[in-house]
Amino acid sequence: MIATLTGRILAKSADRAIVDVGGVGYEVFLATDAVARVPEKGREVFLHIHTNVREDAITLFGFIEEEEKELFLILRTVTGIGPKLALAMLSGMRVVEICQAILAGDLKRLTMLPGVGKKTAERICVELKEKVAHLSSGTLPFSAEGQGVMVVAGSVVADALSALTNLGYPDPVARKALEAVKRQQGEAAFAQIRIEILIREALRALA
């Protein structure tokens, strides 16, 4: 089984990359967010790999962070979640956020993920609470042209992100809006911002 790959990017598309390893090109399927984070053509990349073997095909799924691969494998244990759906879920939300939603039983948040209906979300919460607890803590980095915000579980920024996604904005779009507010407000003011002001300014950035 292939567990990791290190090589040069030959090509990228919406859901995959071709990685040249010693003259052999490996087609690796990636989450949408991971495609954006993979280096450009000609640059070297290291990916954690899950090798999915079926009778008619061997498919490689790639992950930039080891935690992404771990959650992918955990999601696969739920009935009805295949590799493509698990990967799509990782495209819709970061690992920490998915795990926090599972622990909180936040069905509304989970059903916003691509391909996840209410029944699937319920199964995920029931079956995975104990399995994802160790992945649910930590901080989430945002980056945008040198600016960034750190989102810590329970913080004003985390609550604002949750509010924006609950309003229907895709997770990456909501993140960029929060980054825009930080750039506008500056470091000091952003650190003291109240949640109602943060949400209001983020919505203005989204308008």
Written description of the protein model:
There is one protein chain. The chain is an alpha+beta fold. It folds into 3 domains: 4-63, Beta Barrel (OB fold (Dihydrolipoamide Acetyltransferase, E2P)), CATH 2.40.50; 66-135, 5' to 3' exonuclease, C-terminal subdomain (DNA polymerase, domain 1, Orthogonal Bundle); 139-206, no CATH class. The chain is 47% helix and 21% strand. The protein has 10 helices and 7 strands. The chain has helices spanning 32-37, 66-75, 83-92, 95-104, 107-110, 118-132, 156-166, 171-185, 187-191, 195-206, and strands at 4-12, 16-21, 24-29, 44-53, 58-63, 139-141, 150-152. Strands 1-2-3-5-4 form a 5-stranded mixed barrel. It has a two-stranded antiparallel ribbon with strand order 6-7. Helix 2 crosses helix 3 (83-92), helix 4 crosses helix 6 (118-132) and helix 8 (171-185) crosses helix 10. Residues 139-147 have low confidence and may be disordered.
Brief rundown of the structure:
The protein is α+β, with helices and mostly antiparallel strands. It is 47% helix and 21% strand.
Topology of this protein?
Elements: E1 4-12, E2 16-21, E3 24-29, H1 32-37, E4 44-53, E5 58-63, H2 66-75, H3 83-92, H4 95-104, H5 107-110, H6 118-132, E6 139-141, E7 150-152, H7 156-166, H8 171-185, H9 187-191, H10 195-206
Parallel strand pairs: 3-5
Antiparallel strand pairs: 1-2, 1-4, 2-3, 4-5, 6-7
Helix pairs in contact: 2-3, 4-6, 7-8, 7-10, 8-10
